[in-house]
Design goal:
Layout (H helix, E strand, L loop, with lengths): L1 E6 L19 E2 L2 E2 H11 L4 E6 L3 H11 L5 E5 L8 H7 L1 H4 L4 E5 L2 E3 L3 H6 L6 E5 L10 E4 L5 E5 L9 E9 L1 H17 L8 H9 L5 E4 L5 E3 L3 H11 L1
Parallel strand pairs: 1-4, 1-6, 4-5, 8-12
Antiparallel strand pairs: 2-3, 6-11, 7-13, 8-11, 9-10, 9-11
Length: 240
């Protein structure tokens, strides 16, 4: 399995903290966000990493090379990070993971180490980590599922009342579905010029084409997505 972590954005909602520092290098306690994620992935047995960088890419590269001497990282640069979104960043990593299973992470989440093994144990290889407990907001990426816990809809536009929960930004794809995902991304971004959309739009198209993506409930395990100063404070109070 190959892990792709998307870390290209500018995080304008966290300024001034992110005026000159990538969001994933902000500290939660004694460790930065990205370090926490990489350690969790490594402890789950994954050793191949591709990091998609953009804003202040040199800072991320230097930090990882300095703090993870035993790991080899492949870096892919999104030099259009100000005009594009995470679907575009993910597409750039396509060559690196061809023929592999994919573990996909956003770089702005702080989460318990137990979550990634939950995906590894899923009866369906292709699955998405979902938080079904607690409040789900209008701006959250929500999922709607069928009786088999397979995702039928994913996106911000899903009404809260019909949502099973929030997609937390950790996904696993089989080799076949990884190939299908990048084929869909290629079509939507290059042929249809959708350079500024979230990758979940491609997940939805795959589902419409017959892919089966299972929702894996993280249960009582903790996860915080860092978008705002309030999120940062929540993560600090939760994980320190």
């Amino acid at each position: 399995m190959h892990c792709v972590i998307l870390a290209a954005g500018t995080a304008t909602r966290l300024r001034p903290l992110t005026d000159s520092t990538p969001k994933c290098l902000l500290r939660i306690g004694d460790r930065v966000i990205l370090e926490r994620a990489i350690r969790a992935v490594f402890h789950a047995g994954v050793i191949d990493f591709t990091i998609v960088v953009g804003f202040q890419d040199w800072m991320i590269k230097n930090y990882l090379k300095r703090n993870f001497l035993s790991l080899d990282f492949t870096f892919v640069i999104n030099d259009r990070f100000e005009q594009t979104n995470n679907a575009y960043s993910l597409l750039l990593a396509g060559e690196e993971i061809e023929g592999h299973e994919l573990l996909l992470l956003d770089s702005d989440i702080v989460f318990d180490d137990e979550i990634i093994p939950l995906l590894a144990k899923s009866p369906q290889e292709s699955c998405i980590a979902v938080r079904s407990r607690g409040n789900v907001g209008e701006e959250d990426i929500k999922v709607e599922v069928n009786s088999k816990k397979e995702i039928v809809r994913i996106g911000k536009e899903i009404p809260i009342a019909s949502a099973y929960g929030e997609s937390i930004g950790i996904e696993r794809f089989s080799r076949g579905d990884t190939t299908a995902l990048f084929r869909t991304l290629e079509k939507r971004i290059h042929a249809e010029k959708r350079v500024n959309e979230f990758y979940e739009a491609s997940f939805q198209e795959m589902i419409g084409d017959g892919a089966h993506l299972r929702a894996v409930d993280i249960g009582s395990h903790r996860c915080v997505e860092i978008d705002t100063l309030d999120d940062l404070h929540t993560a600090e109070s939760t994980f320190i």
